[in-house]
Amino acid sequence: MKRLIFATVMAVLFFTLLNFVYCNLDDATFAYPVVFKFRIPVILSDGFRSIPLPLGFVLLLAFCFGMVAIALLEALPSLYKTLELRAKNKKIRELERELSISRQLAGIDKTTNPKS
After folding, report:
1. Distance, CA of 45 to CA of 40 (rounded, Å)
2. How far apart are CA 1 and CA 75, in angstroms?
3. For residue 14, how many C-alpha atoms fall within 13 Å in the half-sphere facing its CB?
């Protein structure tokens, strides 16, 4: 979770810094307009179009979203390990409960040492 928060904060900082640099460049540097189109041939023949976005802004957003996506991908294995650990702890508690029940049925007291 700390990595995800760190990556999000770093993405915001990089976005702010690079956006400041981007806004101070002249219009010819990264100002090429990019229009995203989405069309499904039978259902949406006209499709959807985005507003023209500057190329530099699109690259900046892709970089920042990539940073957050990498942090999420790194967090997934730890999530699965946590779930596995919880399942094993639950199994251990069940086995300890069964052991205590079997000791009670056998009449063995927990405090006494059976070896002595």
Report:
1. 6
2. 7
3. 17
Nearest to 51, CA basis, from 65, 61, 36, 38 = 36
Q: Which stretches within 24-54 are classed as H helix?
A: 27-30
pLDDT tens string 16-54: 877 776 676 666 666 778 888 888 777 777 778 888 888
Q: How far is CA 72 from CA 5, 10, 76, 94, in A?
A: 10, 14, 6, 33
What is the Cα–Cα distance from 27 to 93, expressed in whole angstroms? 66
Closest CA to 4 of 73, 59, 84, 85: 73
Indicate the residue type of 31: A
Structure-block tokens of residue 8: 């999000």
β-strand pairing of 44-49 with 53-54: unpaired
Global pTM? 0.48
Q: 55-106 and 2-23 are packed helices; what angle lies between their axes, rounded to 10 degrees?
A: 180
